[in-house]
């Protein structure tokens, strides 16, 4: 088990990690989300042993992970860390980069493993190309393949798909996590992307100002975010007076509820009357910006709505009502 126990760390005055604790079971995938600067990368780097902590300890299966003061070469052989810069060897081929940490003793297996990974990251035709001649996204795919090549026990991924085109990330993500699951690799992934955070993780940690403010399974976290900071990590969200959505319930006037843009729908009439200001085309739908008594509100709609048109909105009852209880 990976056991992060009450760790604190600061570069300067302000702590960047502030009494952070969590555990990951072998084979678990844990996503770490939070606004920029909240400490996600620093947490990953601390787990990798790149810092001497001010407080706390990190263990992997009863072995303490040591910082640079005690460990000349940071990082343990059972762990791989994929940083935001890819750290590839520029003058050797993609194939050699992926095989960098694999033993030459079992040549045939090494070659098969590299082929399997080249296929996973869809770079078969670039096997003999040097990374220097690849795009940023292609380099990131090489780095990903190299990070998993050795089948580490722990894989630390920092924004692993940030440079990769969106049409490719979905399949790559599925293939990568299938590989991670098959090999029972424990994976901690820091991400801005709500799909990474929700679709493949067993649990999600939410960071803010160096603290873990919530640890939950992804579905709970999404359905009951508890506050606007957390909900906003998954997309646009409105904070709406509960009795405008459910007048029959007589909620107190100050009771508000978080409602994602796709949870609001137009209806014949309701207590939530808004004036449309703008419709933004988003492919499968429009995002509509409207005003309710001067307060901005966003919702999704299948078609364009003209500016200044008045519409009435309702919310998906069951899910949103459940959220009010919290
Ligand atoms: N080497 C450093 N020296 C001083 N401060 C640093 C250093 N690295 C990071 N920080 C600070 O630590 C805080 C957390 O940074 P970190 O990179 O961990 O955040 P993050 O959540 O990963 O952000 P992002 O999502 O933008 O990558 C930030 O305020 C950052 O400025």
UniProtKB/TrEMBL annotation:
Record flagged with keyword ATP-binding: yes
A GO molecular function held by the record: ATP hydrolysis activity
Gene3D superfamilies noted in UniProt: P-loop containing nucleotide triphosphate hydrolases
One Pfam family here: ABC_tran
Domain ABC transporter: 2-234
UniProt KW Nucleotide-binding keyword: yes
Name of this protein: ABC transporter ATP-binding protein
Taxonomic source organism: Sinomicrobium pectinilyticum
């Amino acid at each position: 088990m990976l056991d992060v126990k009450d760790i604190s760390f600061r570069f300067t005055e302000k702590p960047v990690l502030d009494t952070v604790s969590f555990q990951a079971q072998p084979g678990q995938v844990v996503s770490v989300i939070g606004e920029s600067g909240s400490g996600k990368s620093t947490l990953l780097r601390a787990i990798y042993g790149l810092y001497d902590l001010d407080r706390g300890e990190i263990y992997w299966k009863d072995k303490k992970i040591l910082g640079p003061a005690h460990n000349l070469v940071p990082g343990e052989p059972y762990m791989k860390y994929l940083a935001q810069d890819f750290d590839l060897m520029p003058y050797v081929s993609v194939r050699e980069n992926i095989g960098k940490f694999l033993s030459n003793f079992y040549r045939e297996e090494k070659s098969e493993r590299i082929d399997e990974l080249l296929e996973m990251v869809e770079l078969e035709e670039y096997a003999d190309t040097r990374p220097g001649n690849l795009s940023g996204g292609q380099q990131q795919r090489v780095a990903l393949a190299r990070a998993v090549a050795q089948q580490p026990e722990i894989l630390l991924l920092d924004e692993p798909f940030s440079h990769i085109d969106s049409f490719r990330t979905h399949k790559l993500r599925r293939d990568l996590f299938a590989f991670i699951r098959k090999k029972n690799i424990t994976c901690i992934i820091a991400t801005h992307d709500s799909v990474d955070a929700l679709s493949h993780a067993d649990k999600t940690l939410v960071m803010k100002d160096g603290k873990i403010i919530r640890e939950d399974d992804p579905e709970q976290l999404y359905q009951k975010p508890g506050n606007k900071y957390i909900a906003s990590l998954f997309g646009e969200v409105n904070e709406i007076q509960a009795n405008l959505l459910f007048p029959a319930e007589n909620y107190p006037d100050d009771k508000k509820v978080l409602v994602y843009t796709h949870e609001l729908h137009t209806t014949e009439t309701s207590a939530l009357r808004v004036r449309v200001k703008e419709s933004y085309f988003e492919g499968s739908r429009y995002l509509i910006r409207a005003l309710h008594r001067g307060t901005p509100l966003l919702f999704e709609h299948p078609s364009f709505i003209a500016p200044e048109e008045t519409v009435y909105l309702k919310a998906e009852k069951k899910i949103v009502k459940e959220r009010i209880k919290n």
